[in-house]
TrEMBL record:
Membership in a protein family: Belongs to the peroxiredoxin family. AhpC/Prx1 subfamily.
Gene3D superfamilies: Glutaredoxin (3.40.30.10)
Provenance organism: Vogesella alkaliphila
Assembly mode: Homodimer; disulfide-linked, upon oxidation. 5 homodimers assemble to form a ring-like decamer.
InterPro entries hit by this protein: AhpC (IPR017559), AhpC/TSA (IPR000866), Peroxiredoxin (IPR050217), Peroxiredoxin_AhpC-typ (IPR024706), Peroxiredoxin_C (IPR019479), Thioredoxin-like_sf (IPR036249), Thioredoxin_domain (IPR013766)
Keyword entries, A-Z: Antioxidant, Cytoplasm, Disulfide bond, Oxidoreductase, Peroxidase, Redox-active center
Name of the protein: Alkyl hydroperoxide reductase C
EC category name: oxidoreductase
């Protein structure tokens, strides 16, 4: 069963955000576009490069009305310690969710049960709480925040323009397609 267009499942988490511990739930995500960005663990190797890349583009996501939520199975205390000791992680302005019970990773289908860690899963969620984009990478393969930003723009465009779709490599301002019988076999 595909999780595309499925409703996110209930969760509650402590998060480290802007020097504070805050509560984040599934309800927090409603009413705006969200990216839930799972990574295996704090104090690792590929993870800080991805989170730093997201931090660099965070203002552009915010300009689109998108909130980023990074999630690992670490605690909110570990997130704070990592934030306090890493120059790359200090750049982060988005909430860093703790998932020590593994509920959130299980809900999104990215928990590596035998390791107690999350896969590199990226989920773009619309304001109604429905999953619109899913990407899951192997542990050694880092993600690209610029490509994620492009995909979010495409998802937002399609949501705002029923009857239009974004072709491969679509960039904001590019032509879209209006699926019809006339296009079949002509692209």
């Amino acid at each position: 069963m595909s999780i595309i267009n499925s409703q996110i499942k209930p969760f509650a988490s402590k998060a480290f955000h802007n020097g504070q511990f805050i509560d984040v739930t599934d309800q927090t995500l409603l009413g705006k576009w969200s990216v839930v960005f799972f990574y295996p663990a704090d104090f690792t190797f590929v993870c800080p490069t991805e989170l730093g890349d997201l931090a660099d583009l965070y203002p552009q996501f915010r300009d689109l009305g998108v909130e980023i939520y990074s999630v690992s199975t670490d605690t909110h205390f570990t997130h704070k310690a990592w934030h306090d000791t890493s120059d790359t992680i200090k750049k982060i302005k988005y909430p860093m969710l703790a998932d020590p019970t593994h509920l959130i990773a299980r809900n999104f289908g990215v928990l590596i049960e035998e390791a107690g860690l999350a896969d590199r899963g990226t989920f773009v969620i619309d304001p109604q709480g429905k999953i619109q984009i899913v990407e899951i990478n192997a542990g050694g393969v880092g993600r690209d925040a610029a490509e994620l930003l492009r995909k979010v723009k495409a998802a937002q465009y399609v949501a705002a323009h029923p009857g239009e779709v974004c072709p491969a490599k679509w960039q904001e301002g590019d032509a879209t397609l209006a699926p019809s019988l006339d296009l079949v076999g002509k692209i």
